[in-house]
């Protein structure tokens, strides 16, 4: 059976998660990408074809002129609609392209939920090249948040305390992303969490979630993910109701939301598995072949009524981040070890000798530590000890 996997840049989710899972399932995988050299370097054993994956018509042409497809899949935020359209055209299992679009387009997500009468959020949209002063006339409350309409990973997400800051932030984002539409919306107070789900269009499993620690405003950089086996039942019910209103129910979904005084409000819906190695941690904590199960749904296989996930897992993922621009001159190497019943996996994300500006996004990550076990206190001690004893040095 052949699966076409649409991708932009190589990611840990694909190279360490989905490709090994596909191999275990005996699938022939063809990677379609606009960055073929990077994928051939990351996975030299994989079949990689160059393709304008942003255009579903180019994807269909590439498939039609190669081998027949049994599945079309992507884990990219930016390619969900294209993969869904290609799968639908070919009569293969997949997500509804309309749902994929409204999940990715943050303005459309807000409009759809408001039209359904579920948790309206005041927001305004700014077209590419439009004068940001138009946002100040939208009557938004302050503070508010401005961000790319189809953005990801908190990149270029800024908090504005007044109209002057709102315009200034919008102009800065436009300078970096002149072709990007922006959305400004009311700031939703509360603790940040995620809900991880997996469905086949018939049943949906709640896999648990994460409590996310972010940096201080005006940026929102994710610093830590603490695994949560189950959110309070009323909170989970509120999030699932909003996902139902959006139509989300096939494959993996990573939903970010805040909780304030018992009310759950969506921040964004990422219609794919959680990334930045939290997916690798999630599979370890649950003790199930998670990546294989996701691929099976895209092959048309029904999910079992019980995934067999363990109930006693504990986990925490934490990033080492740059706090200044410069050259990385000292950092720990890749590490796999166990202490006090806790498995620690550290992976560098920036090479020694690499010089970078300070991005104030997840591109400032220097490395990531995954810690899993069955005792959360032991997991926390192991993580704290690791960061207390290891060192990262940046030379200006």
Overview of this structure, please?
With 396 residues, the chain is an alpha+beta fold. The chain has 3 domains: 2-92, 3-Layer(aba) Sandwich (Rossmann fold); 122-186, ATP-grasp fold, A domain (Dna Ligase, domain 1, 2-Layer Sandwich); 191-395, D-amino Acid Aminotransferase, Chain A, domain 1 (2-Layer Sandwich), CATH 3.30.470. It is 31% helix and 31% strand. The protein is built from 12 helices and 20 strands. The chain has helices spanning 12-24, 36-42, 56-64, 80-89, 97-104, 106-115, 133-136, 163-176, 233-246, 278-286, 290-298, 376-389; strands at residues 2-7, 28-33, 47-50, 71-74, 123-126, 144-148, 158-160, 182-186, 191-200, 204-214, 222-228, 250-260, 263-270, 314-321, 326-330, 335-339, 342-348, 355-356, 365-373, 393-395. Strands 13-12-9-10-11-14-19-17-16 form a 9-stranded antiparallel sheet, sandwiched between helices. Strands 3-2-1-4 form a 4-stranded parallel sheet, with helices on both faces. Helix 3 (56-64) crosses helix 4, helix 4 (80-89) runs antiparallel to helix 5 and helix 5 packs across helix 6 (106-115). It is globular and about 55 Å long. The termini are far apart.
Task: Name the poorly predicted regions.
Answer: none
Give the number of DSSP strands: 20
The residue fraction in helices comes out at 25-40%
Class by alpha and beta content? alpha+beta
């Amino acid at each position: 059976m052949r699966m076409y996997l649409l991708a932009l840049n190589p990611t840990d989710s694909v190279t360490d998660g989905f490709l090994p899972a596909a191999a275990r399932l005996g699938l022939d995988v063809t990677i379609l990408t606009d960055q073929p050299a990077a994928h051939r370097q990351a996975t030299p054993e994989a079949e990689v074809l160059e393709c304008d994956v942003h255009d579903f018509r180019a994807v269909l042409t590439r498939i039609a002129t190669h081998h027949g497809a049994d599945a079309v899949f992507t884990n990219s935020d930016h390619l969900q609609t294209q993969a869904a359209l290609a799968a639908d055209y070919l009569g293969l299992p997949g997500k509804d392209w309309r749902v994929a679009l409204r999940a990715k387009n943050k303005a459309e997500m807000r409009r759809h939920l408001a039209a359904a009468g579920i948790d309206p959020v005041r927001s305004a949209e700014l077209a590419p090249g439009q004068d940001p002063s138009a946002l100040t006339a939208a009557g938004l409350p302050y503070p508010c948040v401005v961000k790319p309409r189809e953005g990801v990973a908190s990149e270029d997400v800024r908090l504005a305390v007044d109209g002057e800051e709102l315009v200034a932030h919008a102009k800065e984002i436009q300078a970096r992303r002149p072709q990007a539409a922006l959305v400004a919306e009311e700031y939703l107070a509360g603790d940040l969490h995620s809900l991880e789900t997996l469905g086949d269009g018939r049943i949906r499993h709640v896999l648990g979630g994460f409590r996310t620690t972010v940096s201080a405003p005006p940026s929102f950089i994710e610093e830590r993910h603490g695994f949560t086996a189950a959110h309070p039942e009323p909170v989970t019910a509120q999030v699932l109701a909003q996902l139902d209103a959006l139509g989300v129910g096939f494959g993996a979904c990573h939903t970010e939301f805040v909780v304030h005084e018992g009310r759950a409000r969506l921040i964004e819906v990422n219609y794919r598995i959680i990334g930045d190695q939290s997916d690798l941690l999630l599979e370890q904590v649950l003790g199930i072949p998670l990546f294989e199960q996701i691929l099976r749904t895209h092959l048309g296989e029904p999910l079992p009524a019980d995934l067999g996930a363990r109930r006693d897992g504990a986990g925490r993922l934490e990033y080492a981040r740059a706090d200044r621009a410069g050259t990385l001159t000292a950092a720990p190497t890749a590490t796999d070890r166990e202490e006090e019943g806790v498995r620690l996996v550290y992976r560098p994300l920036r090479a020694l000798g690499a010089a970078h500006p300070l991005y104030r996004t997840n591109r400032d990550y220097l490395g990531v530590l995954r810690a899993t076990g069955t005792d959360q206190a032991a997991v926390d001690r192991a993580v704290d000890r690791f960061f207390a004893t290891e060192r990262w040095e940046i030379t200006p």
